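Hi,

I'm pasting everything inline rather than attaching a file, because the server keeps stripping attachments. The sequence lines come first, and each chain or strand is labelled.
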Amino acid sequence: MATNATDYDPAQIEAAWQRYWEENKTFRAIDPQTDATAARRDDDRSKYYVLDMFPYPSGTGLHIGHPEGYTASDIVARYRRARGYNVLHPMGWDAFGLPAEQYAVKTGTHPRETTARNIENFRSQIKRFGFSIDWDREINTTDPDYFRWTQWIFLQLFRHGLAYVDDRPVWFCPALGTVLANEEVIDGKSEVGGHPVERRALRQWVLRITRYADRLLAGLKNVDWPESTKTQQINWIGRSEGASIVFALADRDEALDVYTTRPDTLFGATYMVLAPEHPLVPHLTKPEYRDAVEGYVREAAGKSDLDRTDLAKEKSGVFSGSYAINPATNEKIPVWIADYVLMSYGSGAIMAVPAHDERDYEFAIEFGLTVRRVIHKEDSNGADHPLPYTGEGTMIHSGAYDGIASQEGRKRIIADLEKRGIGRASVNFRLRDWLFSRQRYWGEPFPIVWVADTDYERIGGNVATGLPKDPVCAEFNGEKRYAVPIPTSRLPVELPELDRFQPSESGESPLANSRDWLHVWLHSESGETRPRMDENRPGDAWIAGVRETNTMPQWAGSCWYYLRYCDPHNNREVIGSDRERYWGVPDLYIGGAEHAVLHLLYARFWHLFLHDIGVVSTEEPFTRLFHQGIILGEDGEKMSKSRGNVVNPDAIIEEYGADALRMYLMFLGPLEDAKPWNPKGIDGPFRFLRRTWRALIDKDGKPSTKIETDSGDDPELQRSLHETIKKVGEDIDRLRFNTAISQMMILLNQLQKTDRISLESAKTFVQLLAPFAPHIAEELWERLGGEPSVSDAPWPEFDKNLLEVREVTIGVLVNGRPRGELRTTPDAPESEVLEAARKSERVAAHLADKTVRKVVYVPGKILNLVVS
RNA sequence: GCCCGGGUGGCGGAAUUGGUAGACGCAGCGGACUCAAAAUCCGCCGGUCGCGAGACUGUGAGGGUUCGAGUCCCUCCCCGGGCACCA
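And the predicted assembly:
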């Protein structure tokens, strides 16, 4: 409720209104069908769901970049509420993650404690901004009531054959005794301590996102996203069209399958290359080359993908001793092993066409292999284009295909190979399956128990309903084990309590150290588990199992959190279908561009899957996406502790108030741009708010005597007001807050100059300001006689008639140069304007002893006289 | 190397998509108020020339299209982001 401040006092006002909103639950989102109150059940407003990317609650507290996006979404939320929408604007915590775990390793503090403390801090910092968040829907990915459903979704993926296990190389640091993430490894050393690291193959869970590659690509056509983000995803998915071609080996039965985008260059394939991991490498290697090949393969296995793709490195490889037959030329061509070919793309083998591929060319030069030009193209001097030439051209040295354009040749060669049964058109994706496990403590445990094969066969009942068609199995110390799901009714599988959070010596997650938790008896029908360490087999139906020790990556919880806000306390389902149908997906999603690919792609994948199994009714989770740009330090550099250019939001609020900070964050420039923080700049918005106060409130704290109830404004002010109503509304829709604020500043400048303002106009102005600076707006609104909250008052409509311009200033130009202005009507006829222009001395001077050759008149804009 | 963005006053940025470039704000300068300072209010504020009216010039560089280009086309330079042996 209104304070008794006599001058603008943000500290007092903001605290009072934040208390009011909290006590009155002003920003509660109503769930129409399911609310306990009859009146709310019948709420027939349209919904509007505005979502921010939820933060990771770090120990360092809120960064100035966080509230930038949050303020933008809050303005939209408050605006939509005023426009009569039932708005859902929630907040939560993406709280699993490495920092809390690393802190635990160092200090022994449980990550749960650290996380709780950080969330507490983040929440209170965020609350100081006065965002219109429905705090009753707050979620936390580390809450068992939340991750229970993350595990549930994983089990659905598992059951549908979209989760499997594979040995994948990871970074392991023997000195630290731990697995490291890619970004923790710098130049082959651990970032912490600088110890050497090595590649180790560990059992990993992988999700078959590649099965959705086509749909993930197609779906991008239907979303309103920044073009650059769509492009990034398109490139990441990397669809390419080409051909699979079979090359017979020279003296043996086996054949090599290759993928190429340029079947038209088949006649130029003068050698072949296999990835070092290719399964045929051992078979193909002739005895006299064995040592060299094995050495090379071993070396390649020790390198990371990063090492192998390092462009600075020269091409390396070894000859296998074997030959293949080029199906076009019937020539014998050598088969090489080289790590510039990746096992994970296509078939892990290529036909090398050095004349028309830069990588093959470099390799051929390095090892003295044949280079044969098969595509003809002249360069700008009419000479043969230098090799390698990777563009299109005319086929040459290609037998019957000579003279055909390369694009056409591709089709013909594919068709001809297909007739011979040794080739077909094929599509490949750059996208890889998603490595979904981490050797960590602070993540969602996998609800999986590993059992022996004989036990797997005995499984029935409850447990069997969750099994995939093809069993998921892996080897543990040489024994084959099968993955069995914990029944969804027994979720969540919680993390064991630990004293030490160090990873296990084997490079497994710290969970492997928790022996009680790890070894279980599993009831083969009900899926119940009991500790196995100090208990004998409880009965025939019980089988011995070992829990999965990996945990899920941080992406897991953020893949579906936007659904949970719609139904945060549902303990029966991920999301109730009524709620799902009503709220659907966010109408606007705001967050940083750094998540352009991973989070946004993973979430789309899960959403599509949830659609396929009937959990959600839509195919895309984020129909409209917007990235806020980062805020740079005063020096124009990225903010960082080491540069000492970090801006602390708390300190700014202390000095200027949350409203001024919100205004300034939005006034800085276009939301999507990166923009430097100018510490003096906030004075502008702050002064604007104080001037607003003083324009409407007198020194005694009462409404200004300039404000009159019974008289209207002068027409000029009226027009400005309605222009502002129009512009602010449109700009909010377009997320152009900087120009909306400029317009309000222009209006205030006029307001200050007049000596009479109608109460109606004053209140309208306060309403326009409310989404941006809600605290001062509430205060002014109530003092002007409005009923709180201002956010419940319907958004003002502009009057089109008032906007109609009766008189305009047009520019008069001679030969395109401005030579004065003219007041006229927007629809004045050319003759009239021309006559008026000629009368102007200045124009006349420029027309003297010249002939007017042409007159260009754009009504309401310009009059241009072309003379000579 | 490839793919996206983007270069406008001292600074952050406007410019209804081809129609008077520099709105709004910061900083600066001048003035009013004040014993004084702060705060506040008023005015000026791209560059060059001019006492002035005004003239010339100006949106990264160069060329082009147009009556008219910050905006469209071509070439180049610089900055930011993403991808990076994907055959």
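The longest strand of chain A covers residues 163-173.

If the labels don't parse on your end, tell me and I'll reformat.
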